[in-house]
Amino acid sequence: MRGLISPLHRFIHDYKGLAAVEFALILPLMIAFYFGGVEMTNMLVANRRVTAVAYTAADLTAQSASLNDSDIADIFAASASILQPFSTAPLQVRISSVVANAQNVAQVAWSDGFQTAPRAVGSTVTLPAGLTTPGSSVVFVETTYGYASPIGEMVAGTVNFTETAYLKPRRAVQISRTN
Question: CB under 8 Å to 13, separation ≥6 — which residues?
Answer without folding.
Answer: none
